[in-house]
Amino acid sequence: MNLSALQKARYAYVPKLPGMLRHGISEICVKEGLETQSVADQEKIKALFPNTYGKKEITFQKGENTSEAKKQVVGVILSGGQAPGGHNVICGLYDALKATNKENVLYGFKKGPSGLLEDDYLIFDDAYIDEYRNTGGFDIIGSGRTKLETKEQFAVAAEVCKKHGITAIVIIGGDDSNTNAAVLAEYFAANNTGVQVIGCPKTIDGDLKNEDIECSFGFDTATKTYSEVIGNIERDANSAKKYWHFIKVMGRSASHVALECALETQPNICLISEEVAAKKMSLSQIADYIADSVEKRAANGDNFGVAIIPEGVVEFVPEFSVLISEINELLAGAKADAFNALPTWKDKYAFIEQGLSKESMAVFEILPEGIQQQLFLERDPHGNVQVSLIESEKLFSALVKDKLEERRKAGTYTGKFNALHHFFGYEGRCAFPSNFDADYCYSLGYNAFMLIQYGYNGYLSKVSNLSKPAEEWIAGGMPITKMMNIERRHGEDKPVIKKALVELDGKPFKFFEAHRDQWAVETAYTYPGAIQYYGPAEVCDLTTRTLALEKGE
Amino acid sequence: MNLSALQKARYAYVPKLPGMLRHGISEICVKEGLETQSVADQEKIKALFPNTYGKKEITFQKGENTSEAKKQVVGVILSGGQAPGGHNVICGLYDALKATNKENVLYGFKKGPSGLLEDDYLIFDDAYIDEYRNTGGFDIIGSGRTKLETKEQFAVAAEVCKKHGITAIVIIGGDDSNTNAAVLAEYFAANNTGVQVIGCPKTIDGDLKNEDIECSFGFDTATKTYSEVIGNIERDANSAKKYWHFIKVMGRSASHVALECALETQPNICLISEEVAAKKMSLSQIADYIADSVEKRAANGDNFGVAIIPEGVVEFVPEFSVLISEINELLAGAKADAFNALPTWKDKYAFIEQGLSKESMAVFEILPEGIQQQLFLERDPHGNVQVSLIESEKLFSALVKDKLEERRKAGTYTGKFNALHHFFGYEGRCAFPSNFDADYCYSLGYNAFMLIQYGYNGYLSKVSNLSKPAEEWIAGGMPITKMMNIERRHGEDKPVIKKALVELDGKPFKFFEAHRDQWAVETAYTYPGAIQYYGPAEVCDLTTRTLALEKGE
């Protein structure tokens, strides 16, 4: 392998632990806090988690280590999409485990939760771990999207743990994976397996967040990477002065990524899906909102701009959701065959016109032909529209173009409109973790082992006070059930971790709201540049604007 | 303006000058070299440049400054596409100019060469310049694509210079802009205007390169930025293990960018347009070449990969060029109206089938329908196919998919193929310049002023020995005519700077060629990470692999 200069240099980086974890394993003791309650539906959640509900939140402190001396055999799993820093969680876990007892063993289950079920693993040693320190990606053991949620799976998992003498499982994942970790923990406790389960909060989407989890790991690095390239594009727009760039960023169910990127780069436009839903905005209203900025800037002679579009925004537009349901209905089962047999798009269009409600047809009509065709021609194996494939950045630029033509005819707009399109997602999920994510992740892993060593089960590794220097971070744990409520999923009531959407009365959105009218007209771009791992602390140890604003800084 | 932490920190960076320019203006003297000849067509070029041809190459040295003490009024122009470091050329120019004589004045003509013709300018001062030190973009004065090439334009330029008492013009541009700089210099000399012209070699494409110019500025930063995100995508591919990423990178006429990115990131596939042309490859052959890698990797259980596609590659495929010519012919003038009047794509297809040669129809047939339609439906104002709009990354992934289906039927391929697409260009043209580009550009500007001060005209600011630390760089100048030859352009013989294509017997390509068979099958990715401006020299002062290989390092 031909390692890059940066990768070699990053191997030498020593991640910063929270102050109370810096005195060596023998000097880490537990301070118990209050018993916890779930955020909602307490009785129902309690009934579902009789063995793991209501436990105390804890923090670690400097003091004599009173944990039981016992050999630990731990298994770790990466679950779901990549996020920068996953390798460091495993490195921190490994280091604490080995520092506690050289005989302790760390198993890595491969390709996600399926590795546990299929007993597909490797055993970490120093040489192997050292190749992954402070690097991006999940390639250390791979990840996967298998969900651990059935009793049958749990029984298999218990068998595998028993076979290897595993005492604890660490699941590194998002909200669903941590929900499953809690259910697995309850199962293990109920069945007296003696196996503990600890979760770690991962996701670049930033939607695993609440009063306890200040941010999920990876969000910092991913948004910094997107902001780097968005800033570069802004500077290009402001130099060439002839293009409007429509930039889609990852984030299907929440717009934290888009919002953070907007706070970092101050573009002319940033859509926030949660606001679109709250205001029940139509496609036409959104297009008008963007066209207003284009028109005002053109009046100032600025025929260029940058608009950030969150990946999932169309799903938050009420009329568009209705359209999608109607299309899914229209093509359900055998009806798809009749549709597919129609020879030309014109024939198909007539079929669609007949099948959709008047309201949905009105929405369908304004879509650009490419998107219209995509909705009908590219469907998933169940025949459903693949909403995630919709190129919403192109959709909105096409709608804006139409709006501008109307305005040109009305005489209010006389500018030029040339659009370019971008989508950033895969570019940021596997970047070398920022110093913040490298430190935070290493601390989460180190801390996860301390929770194991002290016998906790169904706990989330929790590191907080993150807007302060690492020295002041607080390490501890809390029952995963604390974050849960009951939600209706696939027709069933399920205990799940509440997904954190962008709060429209939260400080980050409020800041954006207070400035966006100015940004829409002026050129107020900020150029963050590439993530720096070295240099002045204010450059290389800065965390997100979202976190800073939430913490009132 | 809300400046990023990095931008503030970069203001404090002090660019490194070549050693011989470090002793102060009063200690810079000239060493004359040999008289020069153009690279080809010497007699013709000499006849076209009677006043500026054949001058001596010069280098600067430490020694008593013997230049004439005279007030300099210099105008600077940014020409063409953005490249990181343009601001630093102007800063270096400004600093040398002011260090020589505080009374000297620097004009910046706005929005490219048109600023000179329209007398649209600003006058730089310390406060203004300081806002742009070590930043990306061309927003300091803007850029433009107006070509300075007619006698009428030159006469206007001479008038504007006379009006302001301008003694020299610095043109920062690519091969065409420097060609025009040489012609303007000759005009100014022939007409005894007393105005000098100095060129600076800019372009991220890397095609302004020869035995004198080791690299154009911006190439280093742009390719590092693309390599960062390509590396991140590689790491994502290697973690998720389920996608083939087809990544198009900028570079229409030469594949230096693609090649450098491949050398930095070691992808499975990288197409090189010059090789495609030399081997007269067909679309089908290229698709088979990529499909071979997909098939071999699938046989190893690796259903993922990364392929880099240079932006201009389809124009280098002989059969595709013929197809484009035929389409342009088929739709020329009134024939387009007949075509446009056809009601359905089916009718249009029949029209096309009748109009194309059998050979071109065979090429047309294998294209995905989206590309077929684009070729006919999206034409420029002259009715020509817009080759630059062709999404070649999608074209090749579609062709590869077809090939794999054939192989699946033949039983040689049993893998899964899911493709994702990316295009990187605007992301890198305005990044904060790497230390290399910051130093190189500042030196080019500083050096340009020394050439002015010593009375040179029609010279290129030349800084060489670039693979060594800046201390060892060599600063000087040479007549732009040295790089020229005669080429046929738009039916006329024109003196132009020879464009540097990727040399198939050059060291960078040879290195790639020696390794690519291994990279095609194995996962040999290198992850360069984000450009670093601070930290260990081997991380933050590294230049391109292309330059290192060319210099035998």
Automatic annotation (TrEMBL), chains A, B:
Keyword terms, alphabetized: Cytoplasm, Glycolysis, Kinase, Magnesium, Metal-binding, Transferase
EC code(s) of this entry: 2.7.1.90
Main location: cytoplasm
Chain positions recorded as Mg(2+) binding sites: 175
Gene (UniProt): pfp
Protein name, as recorded: Pyrophosphate--fructose 6-phosphate 1-phosphotransferase
Function summary: Catalyzes the phosphorylation of D-fructose 6-phosphate, the first committing step of glycolysis. Uses inorganic phosphate (PPi) as phosphoryl donor instead of ATP like common ATP-dependent phosphofructokinases (ATP-PFKs), which renders the reaction reversible, and can thus function both in glycolysis and gluconeogenesis. Consistently, PPi-PFK can replace the enzymes of both the forward (ATP-PFK) and reverse (fructose-bisphosphatase (FBPase)) reactions.
Positions that bind diphosphate: 81
Residues with site note (Important for catalytic activity and substrate specificity): 176
Subunit structure: Homodimer.
Signal peptide residues on this chain, from the entry's feature table: none
Gene Ontology cellular-component annotations: cytosol
